[in-house]
Amino acid sequence: MRDAETILRAGSLIDFGTAGSRPESLGTHLAIAGDRIVAVGGAELERAYPAAGVIDFGGDAAILPGLIDCHTHPVWGSESQGGSLGLGGVTSLAQLRERLEAARAAADPDAWITGYDLDVNAFEGAEPNGRVFEEWLPGRRVSLMTRDAHALVVSPAVVAGIGLTGDEVFADASSIVADAGGPTGWVLELQAMDLVLAHLPQAPLAVQADYLADALRGFAETGLTEVHALDFHEPSRELYEELERRGELPVRVRVYPLVPADSTPEVWAGIAALQGVGGRRWRVDGAKFMLDGTADNGTAWFAEPDRLGENHEALWRSTDAYREAVRFFTERGVPTATHAIGDAAVDFVLDVVAEVGHAPSAPHRIEHIESIPDATVARFAELGVVASIQPTHATRLTEADGSDNWSRRIGPDRVAHGWRIRDLIAQGAPVVLGSDWPIGVGDPRVSLADAQLRRPVGEPDRGEHQPEQKIDAAAAYRSMTSVPAGLFGGAGDVAGAGAGAGDAPRGRFDPGSVADLTVLAADPMGLSPEAQAVNPVLATFVDGGRVVGA
């Protein structure tokens, strides 16, 4: 092992250990050579490596393995937010009208008005309908993406301009909702949404790269050293390459391209050919599936229909085709991540993994897992399937009193089985946490706090959501550090050493491990969840280089 070039000094180096163990400090000093950890210990490291530069973060600071967000959408998230209208906090049609009229006043007369983060509860119990936009903004093209990113509400001007009829046929369960008067402007699921999104004006590539750079920098500033990107549409590759021409990415990015529902083996082969494509800090290393949609839209797949007679079908019209697609990728060594919200969808994924096994590089994983019964919880550990869950979905997309659309639709019994993080961990399942940014809050400190509180941190008057699913700080931080690092390895080259170096040990302080680190002002194990959410990030290190706080 080469001599250390840098020594980090803090109050503690926190090793989160394995499930059920207590976190412990391994010392106060950490020595780095290039991109690797050389040694951990105390002041003796300064004597052992007298030529190394010392960075002193103070006696209260804590150095952690780098925080990892296992579910984000950096490209489309940054695209959708760049130049679009944020609709967070809009809970009524009156508020929505106010926002849209303000946007019209500020925009060019012929410009589209686009928005994101639209809460369907704003339609006050009715199915979303874009015809109201014509009353407020006559003739204006309006396209608003719902908070779950699985639907659009568009104005009649958009319907007419594109020529939507309601008779469109899709390979999956997407639809252009229509009634006796024609399309209502309610556009459900991805293939239907694509008909609209293809017509939206696109910013120049350089501007889109600026949006993406801001998003990745924001991740690093909140303590993240790696994100998993569950999207890879055009021009994702060009954007990552453009940012690397400008310099290093501030975080690692592990990319999972989407396998479209009911797609063909030829499409699968094209996605398989993308595996390993990447750069210094990003790499395609997996494939994403969407087996169902969302409960809010009625497109999730539960064993029993919801109260409106919906939420009981797969998004893939042929579940046999889904099974064969997962087998195709597994046989080629490609791990998969499947969006599955309803209990029937989750069970079907588990059935498929039981048949085809895991890829050798990483286990298969299931995303979201919003409501599952006891028997399904136990199967995750039995099969070694990773449960990838977003704590802020549990605390911020529904209401504890059951008054929200999600709760009303699926009913109290299934609500009571929502986001079972604690139960999955207790059964021995591998659990990783993420944000689903931009749908969820991108700051990992908020996700970690919400997971412990089961309510939005900073909102003590909000009710707790399934409070029996609270986890402690150690379990929360472990699920965003050592667990995902151990399961999924690296993303991109490590210090230019080649793609294989991306699989070097991470998420730990052993000599030879990659120096991806998060430095916080205080040891989170000694703080309340409320204090953890605002615990200052003093620095992040990726490949041993300081990214934030320099």
UniProtKB/TrEMBL annotation:
<protein>
    <submittedName>
        <fullName>Amidohydrolase</fullName>
    </submittedName>
</protein>
<dbReference type="Pfam" id="PF07969">
    <property type="entry name" value="Amidohydro_3"/>
</dbReference>
<feature type="domain" description="Amidohydrolase 3">
    <location>
        <begin position="61"/>
        <end position="547"/>
    </location>
</feature>
<dbReference type="InterPro" id="IPR011059">
    <property type="entry name" value="Metal-dep_hydrolase_composite"/>
</dbReference>
<dbReference type="InterPro" id="IPR032466">
    <property type="entry name" value="Metal_Hydrolase"/>
</dbReference>
<dbReference type="InterPro" id="IPR013108">
    <property type="entry name" value="Amidohydro_3"/>
</dbReference>
